[in-house]
Design a protein that fits this description.
This protein is mainly beta. It has 3 helices and 11 strands; from the N terminus they run βββαββαββαββββ. The chain binds the ligand Nc1nc2c(c(=O)[nH]1)N[C@H]1C(S)=C(S)[C@@H](COP(=O)(O)O)O[C@H]1N2 and molybdenum atom. Molybdenum atom binds near residues 29, 77, 78, 79 and 159.
């Protein structure tokens, strides 16, 4: 292949946060096995500090009947690859907040997935209009490796903040670390300020470990 066919310098793309490089295609990355989808027992729960104090849940049909949005968002993995410019469709996290309001003093949420994977978010990051429980990418249903039937996408944070195979949202009155946040990753995970590891945390970035 001749010099003339070389790609332009990808690191100059203004959508790439510092220390990230462009990824072609869509790698599969997660801890543990891919769960098998069981349509009859699958549900999507909202529990914890709801305004009504009641737990809410949708079955598969009910979840798929919720109002839908499409958002454009990038995926930045802390291992330094970024996938730019996807269109994610699904249920906006703000729709979940509207349908199952949190109590007034809720500050954070934990998003739970199959096999106990979890990630914590500040309520403001969860309520951001870019945060979506995605069922489709670029018009195609997610494959099971990428999180079918539903995964969270939080494009403004590192991608571990977006669990695949989501099953529940827990409203919390105080912050608590999720799966990777307990294992040395940054509690807030803003890729634009390279918040990769928990040793970089400043007072106020997260609960004590
Ligand atoms: N349930 C679950 N979700 C997860 C993970 C995981 O280990 N388990 N890994 C996260 C990480 S670190 C990344 S980079 C993205 C990768 O998503 P992809 O496999 O669709 O590229 O999934 C995130 N969601
Ligand atoms: Mo990642």
């Amino acid at each position: 292949m001749g010099q003339s066919e070389q790609e332009p310098l990808q690191s100059s793309d203004p959508r790439l946060p510092p220390g990230q490089r462009l990824q072609r295609g869509w790698p599969v990355l997660h801890y543990g096995p891919v769960p098998r989808f069981k349509p009859l027992t699958w549900d999507f729960q909202v529990f914890g500090a709801t305004a009504s104090a009641d737990k809410h849940s949708w079955d598969f049909e009910g979840f798929n009947a919720l109002p839908r949005v499409t958002v454009r968002g990038d995926l930045h993995c802390v291992t330094r690859f970024s996938m730019l410019g996807s269109e994610w469709s699904g249920v906006s996290a703000s729709t979940i907040l509207d349908l199952v309001p949190p109590a007034d003093d809720v500050t954070h949420v934990m998003v739970w997935a199959e096999y106990g994977y979890s990630s914590n978010l500040r309520l403001a990051d969860f309520a951001d209009p870019r945060t979506v429980f995605a069922t489709h990418r670029n018009g195609e249903p997610l494959t099971v490796e990428h999180g079918f039937p539903v995964r969270l996408v939080v494009p403004q944070l590192y991608a571990w903040k977006g669990p695949k195979w989501v099953r529940a949202v827990e409203y919390m009155r105080a912050d608590r670390r999720g799966f990777w946040e307990e294992r040395g990753y940054h509690n807030r995970a803003d890729p634009w300020s390279e918040q990769r590891y928990s040793y970089q945390e400043e007072p106020g970035d997260g609960p004590l470990r």
